[in-house]
Write a structure and sequence with these properties.
With 364 residues, the protein is of the alpha/beta class. It is built from 16 helices and six strands. A six-stranded mixed β-sheet has the order 1-3-4-5-2-6.
């Protein structure tokens, strides 16, 4: 009879390699073990999850999007962590409030990729490397999702928290695994927070290993040949290495919304209850200038929830104003905490996410 620890180890191992049969067998043994210990409530809850397939169904569905198994996903050699996350795109470009220039460029990229075979028959390639820049919360990630949805492709998010390693040469090796993976089948690959590995090689505070990673990334971009659309996104475009810019077919800047865009975001995100007649949206929108798309959406969502709970339909102007004040407070608090964190970090040695000093990079 297996011990509880052994069963848990088998369950985790089966999950990590995508072995559904072994996962179910070990889980059923774990349920039986808990029943033997008279832990009937826990056993019943786990059995219900297993029967409903709540966790495995979603995982299987996303893996099916690209016709692969969990064991085929690229992983970090040292930690075994998966380097990418597969996302089923749901938001459409039509549902997003985008500047006209951005919408037109994205439409052209989508059109080229939908007719890639025609272009290739003339010895040409569709736009396949796009760079999204701009402040956080201004639509870069959701725009990538909208592009993937328009192309009927899965969105594969590259996880830089898993890619960056403290071991000499492993970060570049992880990047190579990701490029090998996205080359195997059509998808939209999003390199979010791209500045994590694309910082300028002239930055004095960066370790030599990370500078070598930039060199490797440049070579991989140049040599990449596949049907995948690569999208890199960054909130800190000023930190990027100058050699990266010319590697992209299109560069788009996602700015904070203007008054007209703010109005449109508010209207689109309050349609469930509607707005009180006579609400001065023009004045309210002017007062929200400087906020991001995500901030405006949050204001509309909070006002909608408050109105539902107070049973006030449609949404009153006062509810929007109160939500706006709350969001300003959140933004101010976040900015202050970020500023303090960055100031503190600048006084410390450079560390990766596991706390290993990069000034003492070691070989495995």
């Amino acid at each position: 009879m297996s011990t509880t620890g052994e069963l848990v180890r088998r369950i985790v191992q089966a999950f990590m390699i995508g072995d559904a049969s072994s996962f179910r067998t070990a889980a059923e043994e774990y349920i039986a073990e808990e029943r033997r210990k008279n832990h009937h409530v826990l056993a019943r809850d786990i059995e219900k999850l297993l029967l409903n397939g709540a966790s495995t169904t979603a995982s299987a569905r996303t893996l099916a999007l690209i016709g692969t198994q969990s064991s085929d996903l690229p992983r970090d050699k040292e930690r075994g962590t998966v380097l990418v996350e597969i996302i089923e795109p749901k938001r459409t470009l039509e549902s997003l409030v985008l500047a006209e220039g951005i919408r037109n460029t994205l439409s052209a990229v989508i059109h080229e990729n939908r007719h890639a075979d025609v272009l290739r028959s003339y010895g040409l390639r569709p736009a396949s490397k796009i760079l999204f820049c701009g402040p956080p919360g201004c639509g870069k990630t959701v725009a990538a999702e909208g592009v993937a949805q328009a192309l009927y492709l899965p969105l594969v998010l590259v996880r830089f928290d898993a890619i960056v390693s403290s071991y000499l040469g492993e970060t570049a090796a992880n990047l190579r695994k990701v490029f090998d993976f996205v080359r195997t089948r059509p998808m939209v690959a999003l390199f979010d927070e791209f500045d994590a590995i694309g910082k300028s090689r002239t930055a004095e505070e960066e370790h030599g290993e990370l500078k070598r990673v930039v060199n490797s990334f440049l070579q991989m971009l140049d040599r990449f040949r596949g049907e995948t659309l690569l999208i890199a996104a960054t909130n800190h475009q000023g930190l990027l290495d100058s050699a990266l810019w010319r590697r992209f077919d299109e560069i788009l800047f996602f700015d904070r919304p203007d008054t007209e865009a703010i109005r449109e975001i508010l209207v689109r995100n309050t349609t469930q209850l509607g707005l009180e007649q006579g609400t001065d949206l023009e004045r309210l929108s002017r007062g929200l200038c400087g906020m991001s798309h995500a901030d405006i959406e949050r204001i509309a969502l909070d006002a909608t929830k408050a109105s539902i709970l107070m049973n006030r339909h449609p949404i009153e102007a006062e509810a929007l104003i109160a939500s706006a004040e709350n969001q300003r407070r959140r933004v101010s608090l976040t900015d202050n905490m970020t500023s303090k964190s960055e100031q503190h970090a600048s006084q410390l040695p450079t560390h990766d996410q596991r706390g290993t000093c990069l000034d003492e990079v070691r070989s495995p």
